[in-house]
Structures are given as structure tokens and as C-alpha cells.
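Course assignment 3, question 2. Fill in each field.
Student: A.L.
Task: Predict the tertiary structure for the chain below.
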Amino acid sequence: TRTVPTRTVPTRTVPTRTTLEAPQAGTATDTVTAVSSRSGKRAVVNGTVTEDGLAQVVVMRGDKETRFDTTEVERISWGGVSAAMREADVYFGRGDFENAAAKYRLATDAEQREVVQAVARRRTGESLMRLGATDPSKFAEAVAEFDRFISDYPKNRALPQVRWMKARAALLGGDAATAATEFGALCNEGAGT
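Answer field:
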């Protein structure tokens, strides 16, 4: 008789309440991926993002501070976030925008770092915009979330994107005046006026 080798099929772990528990304090770090505008080289830095601003992103690694020009930052993977934020990301990835919006709202609480609260607020608005495709009343809720982002985080790196999404949500929700104001504000910010 001949033996046939067995094949191991990789298994995929589905997040459960146990795997989504918050990490121990100080064990999770953010990962910033940036591309140098001079050399074109990609840098990946792990640490704690303390500033995610219009001009720069600041990452602390122990006592060392690394600064990146905002235009060079390609991506930030957020570590050390709450279970609500991680669950919201899972819901968003599945296209369950109702639950994603609810979880992102929970993730805007004071227990999160301010930079993570800003991300949660923006993603709440994004989730509501997606819901607007089937329920146009959600566009007004999205505009309200984006308004809160703009007032709470006026120097955040995502501000231009949020202004654009607010204008788009207002336009899709039938509020052309707000859309025109926001598109104008976006253009004026870009021109430096």
C-alpha cells in the first residue's frame, strides 16, 4: 500500500469577543508608513503617534521623537485602541455600516488618545455616509459628525478630506448651500486664504 501525504489546510481565525479585548496598556503601538519626498524610500516606524496634524505627524519611540511631513505619510495603523474601535473596523470591513457607526461613536470617548478619537469621529461620519445610500436621512447625521470633527480637530491631517466628505454628504442630502460653503472652505484652505 502507498501512503498519501496529508495536506494541512490553513484556518482563519474569526474575531470573537475574546480576541477583541483591549490590549494591555503600553503593549500596542502605532505603525506609521511614510515615503521620503527626497529619496523616495519608504520608512516604517513603530511608536505612539502624539500628533496627526496638517503640517506634521509626530511619533514617540521611548524618549525619541520622529517627525514626518504630512505629505509623506502614506498610512497609519492604529495600535492600542479600544475594543469598540477594533469591532467598528471589523463591521466597516464587512459593510455593516449601522453597527460600525455605533461602535465608532463609542470609540470617540475620553479613554482614547485624541488622535484616535479623531479617527473614530471621521469614520463615524464615513459610515453614516455609506448608510445614506439606502437611507438619505443619514446624510444629515453624517454632516453633523463631520461638523463635530471640524470643530474638535481643526488642525488634524484629515481635515481636507473631512471637509470634502461633509460637502458631499450635504449635497447628496439636498443641502446645496452647505455643500457650496464647504467646497469653498476647502478651496480656500488649499489656497492658504
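Instructor remarks: Residues 8-27 have pLDDT under 50 and may be disordered. The longest helix spans residues 114-131.
Grade: pending
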